[in-house]
Design a protein that fits this description.
1 helix; single chain; mainly alpha
Length: about 90
Amino acid sequence: MQKRGGLYASEGREIVKGKKDADVKKAERDLRRSLNAQKKANTELHRPFLDKMKAMTKARHALRTQKRKGSRLIVAGIRKHARWHKLL
């Protein structure tokens, strides 16, 4: 409120505009908070599924790596065997 003198129309408009801006900022903040809460709840709901998918992916990757190592050993054995035959 004004302590001295009258209030000009331009000053009154600035005060009203400031209040509207503050209300808009508060509404945006509340919306952002609710969206974050919704996102967190959604993530918690899907967490078991995501964890299971991670475990399956890790297992598939480990199996693939194991197969590659095994095939490398087989190829190395064949090469070693082929070299031995060439020496004869």
